[in-house]
Structure formats: C-alpha cells, structure tokens
Write a structure and sequence with these properties.
heterotrimer, A: two-stranded antiparallel sheet, 2% strand, disordered C terminus, C: mainly alpha, Helix Hairpins
C-alpha cells in the first residue's frame, strides 16, 4: 500500500465525503469525518517521511506515463504543505461538532461535514498534483466548497461575503485557466515537469510572458495579496468559526504554494525574476499589505475581523520572504506558512470558543474574559505574542529568518519597516489583551465559564506547538530549508 | 463569431434581466455551433445542453424568484474600463506570438496529442478519442470534475434546504400544480415525449465510445426530462416520483461508483484508475472501466441537476407560501 | 497574420465584455451572466487552438488522417462542468441574498451592511437568514 500513498492522500477524504451522505446521525458523521481527516494526516506524515528519505515520489494515475496521463509528484515542498493542511484540518475538526451545534442549524450538519471534507480534498489535490490543469480542477473543488461553507455563517453578511468571494475567486480561477491555456499553446503540454523542460525554448515569446502574468495574477487573487485582498476580511469574519479557523490555517497557504510552484518549478526562478520586476513588485505589495492590513486591524471592533486583517499582513511577510529569492528568504517564507497556520489556527479556534460561550466576538464582549475563560484567553495571549514575533514562539523564528535574509542582501530599510510592522501587531494584540484582563466583566456575561474540552484540547495542542517549534526549531527549519534549497537548485535547470 | 460579440454587447446594454437571460441562452447556442465548426462535437453537445439548457433554465427560475429588471446604476465604470483595457491589451499582446488558428505544426499538435490520435485505438480501444482521453488518459480530471458537480449539489442544497419548514404548509404547495392542469395538450404531448427523451439519454450514455456523447451529456438530458415533467405536472407530483433525499443518495452513489472503479484497480495491483487490470485483457478492462465511470458520471450529473432544480423550485414555493401567510 | 489571429482577438473582446459586466454592473444576476460570458469565451479560445486545417472531429475513421486536437476538447468539457457548478452555486447564493436583503443590487446591499455595522449586530434578529 505504501506505493499508493500519494493517491490515498486525496482519495481518502474524497471517498469519505459521499460516504457521509449515507450516515444518518450528525454525531456519527462528525466522528467519521474526524477519522477520515486523521487518516489523511497519517498518510501525509508517512509521505513526508518517504520524501525525506528517498527523494521525490512520483505516482502515475491510471497507469499512464507522465505527459500523457496525470501524475502526482511530491517533493519536500508539497510534502511539507500536505502535512500542514491535513494536521490543521484534523485539529480544527476536533472542535467542529461542539462549535457548529451553536452556529449552524442541525439539519445542515451533514452538509457541513461533506463540504468540509470536499474542501480538504480540493486543497490536498491542488498541492499534490504535478499537472497544471489538474490544479485548476481541484482548486475549484476547494473553492466551491469553501464558498458554500462561508455562506453557512449565521449573519446575513456571510451570504454577501460568500458571493463576493465567489465572483473574485472565479475570476482568479479563470485567469489561471487562461494562463494554463497560453502555456499549453506554446509547449503542447500540461505536465509541470514537462512544462519546465519545454518553456525555456519559448521563454522569449510574448505569449509565455502573458501566460506568466495571468497565472500569477490569478493566484494572487486566491492568495488575497494586497490589493487583491478585498474578499478576505468579510469572508473570514462572517463564516462559521470552524470554517474561519480551517480556511485561515490552510487556504491561503495553498495559494502561496501555487505561487512558489509556478514561479520556481514551472517557469523557473531565473525566468520569473528577470522577465517581470517581480522582486520589486512583490516586495512593495508585501510591505503595503503589512501596513494596510495591520492598520486596518487596529481599527476593527470585531475580533474576528481584527485577525482577518492581520492575515493580510501576514501574507505580506510570506510574500516578502518569497520575493528575496534566496535560500534563507524562501526558508523564512515556508516557515511562516507553517507558523502562521499554527498561530491563526489557535487564534480562530479560541475565538470559536468565545463565540460558543458568548455568541459574539465584538471586542467589548471580551471584558473580563481573562478571569472567566482563563485557558482560552491565555491561548489567545500566547498565540498573539507569537503573531508579534516574541522570542520563544514560532513567530520569532520565521521573522528572524526573514530579517537575516534581508540583511544578507543588505536591504536594511525593508528590515526596518518589517520591525515597525511588528509593532503595529503589538498594538492590536494588546488592545484585546487589555480588555480581556484589565476590565471588569460585563454583567450580561457573568455566567460565562471556561470553554469545553472539545475546544481546549485542539487550541492548547496548537499553543504548545507554537512554543515547541519556537524553541526546538530543528524539524521545521530543516524541512523548510531543504525544500527551498532544492527549489533554488532547480532554478533555470531542466528538472529530471 | 461577430454574432457572439453583438449578443455580448446587447447583454451588457439591456436592463431587462429576462431578455438578458434569453440572450445568454442564445449565446450558448451560438458558441455551441461555433464549436461544431471547430470540429469539437463533444464540446458543442455539452455547451448546447449546459449553456443553452440547464444554466438558462436555472437563471430563469432565479429571476422569477427575485426581480426582472436591473437597477440602472453603474458603479466604478471607469475603474472597470481601465481593468478591462489592461487585461485585454495584455491578452492581445500575448496573441502576437501565437501559432495561427488551424496551423497543423503548432506545438500542441506535435507534442502529446499524436499519441492520443495514433495509439489510443490500441491502448484504449475507443473510436472517439475525446472519450479515450477523458475517461482513460485523464480520467482523474474527470473524477475531479464529477466531484465539482457533487460539491455544487451539496452546496446548493445546504444553502436552499427547506427541510423542517414545509410540514404545515401543504396546501400552498398545490399552487404550482393547478396552473398546469389547464394545458392538457401540452401535457399529453410531453408525456408521450418523455420516454423518448429518456431513451435518448441512455443512447447518449452508452454511445460515447463511438460518437459524441457520454455520461455528462446523458446525465443532463435525463435531468432535463425530469425537469420537463416537473414543469408540466408540478413539483409535488414530481417529488412523488423522485424524492430529494434519494436523489442525494444517488448522487453520492455515482461518485462512489467512480471511486470504487479506481479502488478496485488498486486492489488488482494497478495504479488508481488503471483499467488494464480490471479484466483479463487490457482492452476489455479499458472498456469495462470506461463504461462504469461514464455510468457514475451520468448518475451523479443527473441527480445533482435534479437536486439543484428541485431546490430552486422548492424555494419558490416557500416564498409563495410565506408571502401568503403574511397576507392572511 | 490578420486572419490567423482574428479568432483570438474576437475571443479577447468577448472576454473583456464579460469581465466588464462582472466588475461594473451592480446587479447580482447580471454579474453571474457576465461571468458566464467570460468563461465561455475562454472555452472558445481553447477550442480555437485545437483546430487543424483540413482535419475533422477526433473520432477515428478509416479513411481520415487529419483530426482536431482532442486534448483541449477534453479540458473544456471539464471546464464547462466546473462553470455550470459555479453558476448554480452563485445563483443559489443570489436567492438567499434576495431573501435576506430583499434586494439583488450591490449598492443597496452595501448600504444595508453599513447601517447594520453601525447599529451593532450579531444578535439582531434581522440577521437570521432562515
């Protein structure tokens, strides 16, 4: 069975989704979905181990050899991503049953789990595949299911957020489709490795240039890179808490993975960074994203919205690391993918717990929660510190790498701006902490008690991970470093 | 082609949504005929049934549920124009280095495609190369496509589900039905046609190996037959024939059928969706595999289309009944 | 030169009309229609490149040697299905938006959202969309 791990990665949740229809009781469906997600986590762990031991794993679907059939191709980069996605999905799902009881009407629970598993399937499918068109198909699976999941939010604004996301997401997907079509037209192939081998021949044509521009723009729409971020804050704010936690920890990471995959592996780093002023462009957009996102976050009164805007800022950090295009820079970006998943997973789950107890995440409702929900608020505190980049948390590790990558290149001003950006993070995190710990609790919330274990267990697992990987950085740094090294080595060369 | 541009501009100009939707139907039909000219018969078939059929129908239902005319306000027209000009200019620039339409020596005709055209007869044994690529070489894409449809079905019913809200509103449901009692001739003629439409659906389902057709188109046609029945005999009687929960189960079954073909090939020692190991000889296996997965596609597509339509139409009933309740 | 690329240029014009409708129009149904035009024109683009002069539809026959390229056809079959799935979901959302906001015009919805944000929300009974 080990040889079939790559396909099992996707097929387990994929088959799991329709099976949910057959199960009758919501609790049973939840347990089943949890097991399915857990299984795909085990598969991804085995897969990453396989990749680290013996190099890139290739799997030919339908038994057809590569450029004719579709192949799965897993190297260190997507092996790492698969692990993050399936782990986050499993942890978030653990709290799902409790959380959606309060937020989604009971008759829709089965639908919720089906859509959740489909969304997971889509993301895993995008990450694992080595075929450009297959990316489009699975991207649409994950997108369609997340539109529907967001629309399940209680507030009517969730519907509007889902609609906006649908329109922008579809435009993004169609842009990617156009880009893939243009690439296909010039090379005759859809396989990524084959594309990488055949693109240099036609690299100077206007068509390939256009293809590149369209693919990148489409991906940036999905990534919510400033200024294409407009769909994100509302979608994250009004979606059910579980959905927000899941999407915030995974969806933008998938888009960021695609950005790396297309620029480095398909078009090749030297093409990508010479034909367009990509470095300057992404650096500027990343910095703007950090400042616009952080400043907007400071002015929000809905805590979910604060962290939604903060996500835009965090995407900025990743993109800056990416734009440096050195091993250290890319390592920083990959580390930040991992770390950001840990932080935002913990934060949004904790907000889910607050929502569960209080029914609102308006900032004034947080008064006195430091005493009433000590464990939940402590989790928000630690994850918030990590978001700022305090030493001994994961946030520090990725910022450290990012700064040293910038200093390696001698880009002091950018490094300085990033430090200022971190101060802005301090402002909005402090705002929440201050209200939670130093204000007396509201009379309406006097009966509020600590969140149930279903929340506390995944939240604290994530918080502990936040600290553990902040202290013992070997595992995460090693994988991220190895992945970025092999990406940069492949730069400009024909991949085997 | 010029016709398409005219239609598109008209669509942009018109404010009457009913006319817009009719035009988009025609747009679908015209592009379908363009696909025929371009030798893409399978695609034309699908575009005709989807673009001019199902999607127009769904849009009409939605208009009847919402409103018929568009508010005349345009916002950000200059920004929009700028974005459009930029993207359009970029694309035109990109076309300059493209191989010409119809040039036989373009890269896409030299790389990869020749194997499909030359060897698929030996490797897959199906005359329609589109079917061979769709159902065998790139069967996993098709699986993904099926899952997309399934997702849409689940998503739509999660959004529009009316379970638990009907119950006491039985009388209101009949509104739709009484209206249709009058058109007797229409009903009889359609009733006579229904078996033929279904028969045609089955023909299309199993004919995909030799000519244009296959699971998706068959599923859409089959769904169209059921929708026609619904339109003429009302939702209640249609529900008596096909229950919504059942149609969801059936949709899941189609996906599972497709998936289990893949799993069986895993168990038989091949890769996922490797049909060669399904039977004693590869060609037989390929035939069996394609037959089964096309069936899976047909089943899921038909039931999802029906589910979506029922949900849309069911919402209309709900709106009617609530507005009546308010009135009394 | 002119004839060789003419098809593609028309496709670009169609795409841009579609995209313009999506961005500039405030009516939700009209936006979906625009999206459909945008997507359909991408389909036309793919199908145009599959064409081979003197070829026929890719259904193998004894005395024909030139066929159109089957691969883009396959891709577009998939893309059409994805398109209708998106459209269906978008329309379902539109129905729900109409019920929740009693409008399908972007401006009116945005205004209502602004009002709601200033009122202070969450527990407002109007928000229950069921």
């Amino acid at each position: 069975m080990l040889a079939h791990l790559p396909i099992l990665q996707v097929i387990v949740p994929l088959i799991g989704a329709p099976v949910c229809v057959l199960l009758s009781r919501a609790r049973l469906v939840w347990l089943f979905a949890l097991i399915v997600s857990g299984l795909s986590f085990i598969v991804s762990a085995l897969l990453l181990q396989q990749v680290l031991m013996s190099g890139t794993v290739i799997y030919e679907l339908g038994g057809w050899d590569a450029p004719w059939g579709i192949e799965y191709r897993i190297d260190k980069l997507n092996g790492f991503l698969l692990l993050i996605i399936s782990a986050m999905s499993t942890l978030v799902l653990f709290a799902a049953q409790t959380s959606i009881n309060k937020e989604i009407p009971a008759e829709k629970h089965t639908h919720f789990y089906i859509l959740y598993l489909l969304s997971l399937t889509g993301m895993l499918g995008v990450v694992v595949t080595g075929d450009a068109f297959n990316v489009f198909v699975f991207l649409e699976i994950s997108s369609l299911s997340s539109y529907a999941l967001i629309a399940l939010g209680k507030d009517r604004r969730a519907l509007w957020a889902a609609y906006q996301y649908l329109i922008l997401g579809t435009i993004g997907a169609t842009f990617i489709l156009i880009g893939i079509g243009l690439m296909y037209q010039m090379t005759g192939t859809l396989n990524m490795a084959d594309l990488a081998a055949r693109l240099p021949e036609v690299a100077q044509t206007k068509t390939v240039f256009t293809a590149f521009a369209f693919v990148i723009t489409g991906i940036c729409l999905k990534l919510a890179l400033f200024p294409l971020h407009l769909w994100l804050p509302n979608a994250y704010t009004y979606a059910p808490s579980i959905v927000t936690a899941f999407l915030a920890a995974t969806a933008t990471k998938v888009a960021f993975y695609l950005l790396i995959r297309f620029t480095y592996s398909v078009f090749g780093g030297s093409f990508s960074f010479t034909t367009l002023p990509l470095q300057f462009l992404f650096m500027t957009l990343g910095l703007l994203g950090i400042f616009v996102g952080s400043i907007a976050a400071i002015y929000q009164t809905n805590v979910k919205q604060i962290f939604a805007y903060s996500s835009i800022a965090q995407i900025g950090y990743m993109v800056i690391g990416f734009s440096i295009s050195s091993v250290t820079g890319l390592t920083a970006a990959l580390l930040h993918i991992f770390n950001h998943a840990l932080m935002k997973g913990a934060l949004f789950l904790a907000l889910g717990a607050v929502m569960y107890r209080i029914g609102s995440v308006q900032i004034n409702q947080f008064q006195g929660l430091g005493q009433q929900m000590p464990l939940t608020m402590a989790a928000i505190l630690v994850a918030g510190l990590s978001l700022i980049g305090m030493p001994l948390t994961v946030g520090f590790v990725s910022k450290w790498y990012l700064l040293s990558a910038l200093i390696e290149k001698g880009w002091w001003p950018v490094a300085l701006l990033i430090l200022i950006g971190s101060l802005l993070t301090l402002v909005y995190v402090w705002k929440i902490v201050e209200i939670a710990y130093f204000k007396p609790s509201l009379s309406t919330n006097s009966t509020v008690i600590e969140a149930p274990l279903a929340f506390l267990i995944p939240i604290w697992l994530l918080v502990i991970a936040n600290i553990y990987f902040g202290v013992d950085t070997r595992l995460s740094v090693e994988v991220a470093h190895a992945a970025s090294e092999s990406l940069l080595q492949a730069q400009g060369q024909v991949r085997p | 082609m010029a016709l398409l541009v005219v239609i598109a501009i008209e669509i942009a100009r018109l404010k009457d949504l009913f006319a817009v939707v009719m035009l988009i139907g025609i747009y679908g039909l015209v592009s379908a005929s363009f696909f025929v000219v371009m030798d893409a018969v399978d695609v034309a078939f699908t575009e005709a049934s989807v673009g001019a059929g199902i999607s127009t129908l769904l849009m009409l239902v939605v208009i009847s549920l919402t409103q018929r005319s568009e508010h005349p306000v345009r916002h950000r027209p200059f920004g929009a124009l700028l974005v459009v000009m930029l993207t359009g200019g970029m694309l035109i620039y990109g076309t300059l280095d493209m191989p010409y339409v119809g040039a036989g020596d373009a890269p896409i005709h030299i790389h990869i495609a020749p194997r499909y055209l030359n060897d698929s007869m030996q490797e897959v044994g199906v005359a329609n190369v589109v079917t061979a690529v769709l159902a065998s070489y790139r069967a996993f894409d098709t699986f993904g496509e099926l899952v997309v449809i399934f997702t849409a079905g689940v998503g739509v019913s999660a959004l529009l589900m009316t379970v638990g809200r009907r119950g006491d509103k039985k009388p209101a449901v009949a509104i739709n039905d009484s209206m249709h009692k009058q058109q007797l001739i229409l009903r009889i003629v359609s009733k006579m046609m229904l078996p033929f439409i279904m028969l045609f659906a089955f023909y299309v389902q199993f004919h995909g190996d030799y000519g244009p057709g296959g699971g998706f188109q068959a599923g859409v046609i089959f769904a169209a037959a059921i929708i026609l029945y619904t339109l003429l005999f009302g939702l209640t009687s249609a529900r008596r024939v096909i229950n919504q929960t059942v149609s969801q189960l059936v949709a899941a079954f189609g996906v599972l059928l497709y998936g289990s073909v893949g799993l069986v090939s895993l168990l038989n020692g091949g890769n996922f969706l490797d049909y060669n190991v399904l039977a004693s000889n590869p060609i037989g296996g390929q035939h069996l595999g394609i037959l089964l997965i096309e069936l899976g596609v047909g089943i899921t597509v038909a039931s999802v289309m029906i589910t979506i339509f029922f949900n849309f139409a069911g919402r209309k009933e709900l709106q009617k009944s609530t507005s009546e309740n308010k009135g009394t | 030169m002119l004839m060789g690329l003419f098809n593609y240029w028309i496709v670009v014009v169609l795409m841009m009309i579609g995209l313009y409708i999506v961005i500039a129009h405030g009516n939700l149904i009209k936006k979906i229609v625009g999206l459909t035009i945008f997507q359909t024109s991408v389909f036309i683009f793919y199908i145009s490149m599959a064409k081979v002069d003197g070829g026929t539809a890719p259904i193998l026959m004894a005395n024909v040697s030139q066929y159109a390229n089957p691969l883009p056809h396959v891709l577009i079959l998939t893309a059409i299905v994805v398109g209708i799935a998106t459209t269906a979901l978008a329309l379902a959302l539109t129905i729900r938006i109409k019920e929740a906001y009693n409008s399908i015009e972007e401006e009116s919805i945005q205004q209502q959202n602004k009002k709601q944000a200033s009122v202070r929300d969450e527990l407002d009974p109007r928000n229950d969309p069921y």
